[in-house]
Amino acid sequence: VQLVESGGGLVQTGGSLRLSCAASGRSFKVNDMAWYRQAPGKERELVAQIFAGNGLTKYADSVKGRFSISRDNVRDTMLMFLQMDSLQPEDTAVYYCYAWLFVSGYGSGYWGQGTQVTVSS
Question: What's the CA gap between 40 and 116, in Å, rounded?
Fold first, then answer.
């Protein structure tokens, strides 16, 4: 099972980006999913989370009203998205996809490789 992010890039202040995360592999079940980010010299922080059971979402205060997390299931691939609007320079970071997966009945956290988001002022 692997998580692969895409959609990062360079954008001007006030612009938008949409990040995608694809979870694929054999015989797994996806539970809760989330986006984290890590800026240079800072700790990794939770940006947004989406819960599998009820689809509820949770956001960091710094992104509320600007970011939106969603998920979809296409064939055997679980997709998660992060729509980022009104981007600010402080949103510059490497963004990571995270998912709690059950593989062969065992639960564990999985991380993607990260995608760089740079917001220029």
Answer: 11
